[in-house]
Design brief:
The complex is a heterotetramer, with 2 copies of chain A and 2 copies of chain B. Chain A is built from 5 helices and 13 strands. Chain A is an alpha/beta fold. In chain A, strand 10 and strand 11 form a beta hairpin. In chain B, the strands form 2 sheets. In chain B, strands 1, 2, 3, 4, 8, 9, 10 and 11 form an 8-stranded mixed beta sheet that branches. Chain B starts with 9 loop residues before the first helix and ends in a 21-residue tail after the last strand. Classes of the chains: A alpha/beta, B alpha/beta. At the B-C interface, helix 5 of B face strand 4 and helix 3 of C. Chains B, D: GO terms for molecular function: CoA-transferase activity.
């Protein structure tokens, strides 16, 4: 059975290492914060200008001046810091963030990522996605393995407008956990969801899949 | 100069600095840290054909959306205009220009405008539509695209506190683009929740030195609309 | 009689306008702070990271963490602010400082300035001088009109290594106050020291001098 | 990570990060805001062939001068080395390389190194020796020279206070190059006058977020030598 959103977030949390500074994208990646192993400490960055994101506030602690990049109300921690947008992206662009976990529409064999727009539909804008994938040390994508019609989202070459070139390092999908070997242009299986086999993955993947 | 920087309200602070076709930077991320009263002042002024540089363009019924709704904006320079149906309609109808920038590139271009840096190189956007038509060059083994500065005729920013010299302090994530935009306007007007006496702010903790601020108003009240109120339940008390 | 250092500083202070943000160089320019007219307010910037320089401290108020760009102990004012070197020079480079008053070795007809080194002598470094002359809105030079041998320091073209090109707007020397017309490559007299006449100025100036 | 960033002294904090031929950034302006104890630690370590990026090179008997005097420095990247006779001797004897930068260009190059900007354009230095061999281009009617980023194997900085996460706060003009250098080192070690408990520093007033700081020491005492003690007499009391 394919993994649920929570199961995907839990597997993506395996990417976290003690001491990491991490940026989590909107959607499933935000859920990763709920699965940080208890024996490690990570610091979450929000590109609107915050390091050290705490849990969501209690109802009576909501502060409109304290939001994350998804514009959700959050809280601060005793060691949090706030800074300007330019300083925030200097931090991102300068390579100081260890890991970003982001959603995606397409990932190519060479690590190209498309996750910001579908031509013909309304343009919303890329927000900080292009800066994040270009700047952070390691990019992990969390997404459904195939689209609703069952077509692969991991493809030889992206058909959608790119967010960044050769940036994706690993993928957590509802089918499993994978490492992308950008040089070999192949996907290596690290773990499969119960009931998902190699055949199924290969049938719904547009690039070479290795059994890991 | 001190007291001469303090104006009574948005209308008087905006007097003499607005003209049709001008470029305006407006601080804020979503609806957080928006110069609410100065946006209302622009609405009342009727100034039009604006190019507005702002990360977003308000949200339905709020912030810069009101200027869009009043037909005052010709072009937006933003990174994300998702929460805005009116924007979509006007854009698809060809009534609005849009220049999308990666958020970090937008922030750095504004910082560069204030800092006298006409161009800089970044990895962000290489190989994407953002880099089309721009010089690309390799540094340290990676391709980088050249981006240029952004400056404005007017910057409107929202801070938490100001002293009479125009030194500003922001609060939490309401800081966002505000300090960067404050440096990049030919004229910068700040609105704050409180104007405090000289000497009240610690000189070590000024986010925007007064040199960048030409005019200041104290807003009568702040709506501070929340876009996505997200909460957790209180843990149950142990019995 | 040529002006003294104090008289030169007093004349240079005529360049100050109400509301100006000003950077004063080391030496005579520093003395200009003593001659700010009482009916105007100016804010002094120090490129090591301070806006709003107060007077020198009393002996028992000296703070080693509070110095100006000449490394002299100073004091802060109620509206002072401190910032980093990068922020300080962003302020300077971005054109936010209205006026710099600096010393000089040579000034050329087109406004070129040489004030940082003499080849063959020990190099000390340009410090912030190149940034200041390139970034501030108006540059006023304060210097002796001629060198010790009586040779002009205002010349057709600088022989010393440049600090900046076409940057000088006005000169206060011990002979008088002058405006440099960079397009016309000439020096216009605004005021002469008592006993200094046009002949004397012309004899010790390497470019065209106009009677004002 | 918190406590793991705190080291007992300069020697232990420097252990494992020094190697001959490395590039080190050292904060401070003159002798103000100098990482006194970490410089002493470098002296004790004997690491040599150093390229040191610092606005100045100490003063006779103090700061980086001590490393120079011990023959550990191969090259300085600075804006002003005036108060240093030893520097003059070594330089004239061909025993020391020197790369002079305009002070603002130096600061911006360091900021660029930390911010992932490999190159930028500035008016500073156009038409001078500084621009020799560098691309020059016109923007907005004025010539600008291209400058490149600076990064270091190690940055040593001095702050006033740190919390266990490495958030730093500086004091007055002792801030200077320190926050910029903190961002541009592969490893950054901060020394402070006081390590305060988590929660003691206001998150709105952190000058250097902890992400930039790998190791922290609390200096046992600070000499803070003044180069030019300049005072005024007390006004006489009115009779």
């Amino acid at each position: 059975m394919p993994w649920t959103r929570e199961e995907m977030a839990e597997r993506a949390a395996l990417e976290l290492k003690d001491g990491f500074y991490v940026n989590l994208g909107i959607g499933i990646p935000t859920l990763v914060a709920n699965f940080v192993p208890s024996d490690i400490e990570v610091v979450l960055q929000s590109e609107n200008g915050m390091l050290g994101i705490g849990p969501f506030p209690y109802d009576d602690d909501v502060d409109p001046d304290l939001i994350n990049a998804g514009k959700q109300t959050v809280t601060a921690l005793p060691t949090s810091s706030f800074f300007s947008s330019a300083d925030s992206f200097a931090m991102i662009r300068g390579g100081h963030i260890d890991l970003a976990i982001l959603g995606a529409m397409e990932v190519a064999a060479n690590g190209d990522l498309a996750n910001w727009t579908v031509p013909g539909k309304m343009i919303k804008g890329m927000g900080g996605a292009m800066d994040l994938v270009a700047g952070v040390q390691r990019v992990v994508v969390v997404m459904s393995h195939a689209d609703k019609a069952g077509n692969p989202k991991i493809v030889e070459s992206c058909s959608l407008p790119l967010t960044g070139i050769a940036v994706v390092d690993a993928i957590v999908s509802d089918y499993g956990r994978f490492t992308l070997d950008r040089n070999a242009r192949s996907l290596r299986i690290d773990e499969l969801a119960d009931g998902i086999d190699l055949e199924t993955v290969r049938a719904h993947t547009g690039i070479t899949v290795l059994a890991g | 100069m001190a007291k001469r920087k303090i104006f009574s309200d948005a209308e008087t602070a905006l007097a003499g600095v607005c003209f049709d076709g001008m470029t305006i930077m407006s601080g804020g991320f979503g609806l957080s840290g928006n110069p609410e009263h100065l946006i209302a002042g622009l609405l009342a002024s009727g100034v039009k054909d604006l190019t507005v540089i702002s990360n977003n363009c308000g949200a339905d019924g709020f912030g810069l959306w009101t200027l869009l709704n009043n037909g005052q904006i010709r072009k937006m320079v933003s990174s994300y205009i998702g929460e805005n149906k009116l924007f979509a309609e006007l854009y698809l109808a060809g009534k609005l220009e849009l220049e999308l920038n990666p958020q970090g590139t937008l922030a750095e271009r504004i910082r560069a405008g204030g800092a006298g840096i006409p161009a800089f190189y970044t990895k962000t956007g290489v190989g994407t539509v953002v880099a089309e038509g721009k010089p690309v060059e390799e540094f340290d083994g990676a391709l980088h695209v050249r981006e240029s500065w952004l400056r404005a005729d007017l910057s409107i920013v929202k801070a938490w506190k100001a002293d009479p010299e125009g030194n500003l302090v922001y609060r939490k994530t309401a800081r966002n683009f505000n300090p960067n935009m404050a440096t990049a306007g030919k004229v910068t007007i700040a609105e704050v929740e409180e104007i405090v006496p000289a000497g009240s702010l610690d000189p070590d903790h000024i986010h925007t030195p007064g040199i960048y601020v030409n005019r200041i108003i104290q807003g009568p009240s702040y709506e501070k609309r929340i876009e996505f109120r997200t909460v957790r339940p209180r843990e149950e008390e142990p019995a």
